[in-house]
Amino acid sequence: MSAQIRLVEITDANRDAVVALRVHPSQERFVASVERSFQDARENPEAKPWFRAVCDGDTPVGFVMLCWDLVPGPGLLGPFFLWRLLVDAEHQGRGYGRAILNEVVALLRAAGATELLTSCVPGEGSPEPFYRGFGFVPTGETDEDGEVILRLELGSRP
């Protein structure tokens, strides 16, 4: 399936539905909740958080948050960093994750970005194979939490 999605601003009208999104329980150690993401965004404005609900029609199916065009520094990778990517457990396996990344890549290219960084917790059930399947490659570095840093060269994506 080729998922058709829209990245939508989070408003009072859709906030509760977006906050209610949950990954599969086995993934909770790898992906923070939407509520935690909002908290992280509030507590780290220097990370220049940019976030959107991911909707299929009018139905929220996921959430994405990036550091958008920040100046890298201690604890801050960038300038563009995929901070959170969450697809609700009920909507997984339908191509939404790949569709979200395709949409993000298009937005980043339009903004003049040449690469996207992300990180993930290593281990059984980690999203690393998904990211690598999309084209991300390990940089050989880890962050202060021991997460593997991955890079996607935006010119390498069709």
Low-confidence stretches: none
CATH fold naming = Aminopeptidase
- The topology string of helices and strands comes to EHHEEEHEHEE
Mean of residue pLDDT values: 92
Which CATH architecture is right?
3-Layer(aba) Sandwich
- Counting DSSP H or I runs of 4 or more residues, the number of helices is 4
- If you compute it from the alpha carbons, what radius of gyration comes out, rounded to the nearest whole angstrom? 15 Å
Give the count of structural domains: 1
Could you describe the largest sheet, including whether it forms a barrel?
7 strands, mixed
Note the beta-strand portion.
Answer: 25-35%
Gross geometry: globular
N→C terminal distance: 18 Å
**What's the total number of strands?**
7
Percent helix? 10-25%
CATH superfamily, by name, is: Gcn5-related N-acetyltransferase (GNAT)
Give the class-level CATH name.
Alpha Beta
Widest β-sheet, arrangement of strands = 1-2-3-4-5-7-6
GO molecular function: acyltransferase activity, transferring groups other than amino-acyl groups
InterPro entries: Acyl_CoA_acyltransferase, GNAT_dom, Sper_AcTfrase_N
Domain N-acetyltransferase: 5-155
Keywords: Transferase
Can you lay out the helices and strands and say which pair or pack?
Layout: E1 6-8, H1 15-19, H2 34-43, E2 49-56, E3 59-68, E4 80-87, H3 96-110, E5 115-120, H4 128-134, E6 137-142, E7 148-153
Parallel strand pairs: 4-5
Antiparallel strand pairs: 1-2, 2-3, 3-4, 5-7, 6-7
